[in-house]
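User: Please predict structures.

Assistant: First:
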Amino acid sequence: MSRETWDLGHPYDKSGSDVVAEHPYEDVPAPWVKPDSILYRDKVIVVLYTVRRGPHGTTYVPGKAYWCWCSIEGREQQAGMFSISGAEDKSPQTWGGLREVTPSQVVAVEWHGDIHTEVWYQGDCYDVDGAPTFRQHGEVPHYEMHIRRNADYSQIPVGLRPKPPEPDPDDHVWGEADGKSFH
């Protein structure tokens, strides 16, 4: 028998080892599987805003909403629980109280937002507090953003609560790619 008969590298080729076999599934992408990692523990809705400056002032225009895989962690570096800085007047008022600031931290593999981004997590709305920081020297490069809750909707009846915007189901979910961000 000839050597070509025993070539098991191309068992289904008609002409032997000089023909490259075509694989029927090479163009079919494999389905994405959520990694078993702390960076994929939470899924939030992110709304990007555009700043419009005009002769009558500055307005924020909401843009598209996206899903984002991330991890939401509490943040303890906040100086005061009821103020953003120590400069606010903390004396009691007759018409209300102090506004609670609930600081948290978002850690995500992929992030396209900036300081004008809104995050919806567990039915509450959060604002991004400062620019995202890219941490490239860890085991997994990731972005860190500090957020603070601007509205606690748990005190409002369910039927009257504002609903978060619905992301388009065909859009890319942040974090479901190869882990690379577009920044």
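Second:
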Amino acid sequence: MTLLLLVGLGWLSLRTVLLLSQVSRHSSEAQLGRAFEQELRDRGLIDAPADR
């Protein structure tokens, strides 16, 4: 029973961490940073990343 409880708490913790990382990735500051990087790429001031 204890193992089941620990697995449940671990699963909830992992989901919380993933949700928080997703929220921070889509925050307004992150969007502004990505838009700024794209503007620099469009002007040829920085190279495009290799993975895109």
